[in-house]
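task queued by scheduler; priority normal; single chain, no ligands, no partner chains; default sampling; output format set to structure tokens
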Amino acid sequence: MSIEESELKFFTNIRRFRARRGQNLEELAEESGVSLDMLEQLEQNILPEEMMVDDACRLAKALHCKIHELFD
């Protein structure tokens, strides 16, 4: 799988888990501690330069999933 394909899965899965929980971006930002600006970029299929592994971990926790599920 290419890096581009992995990124697309990550973006898609964040949207999918967020929709499943009925959260809007503001709610996910509040619960995860990930900035709204970063979440908006992810929603536009843009991987923010400043994104760290910690951000993905916080998103997984707020989305009630395991981190690997964001990349599967």
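post-processing summary
- The radius of gyration is 11 Å.
- The mean pLDDT is 95.
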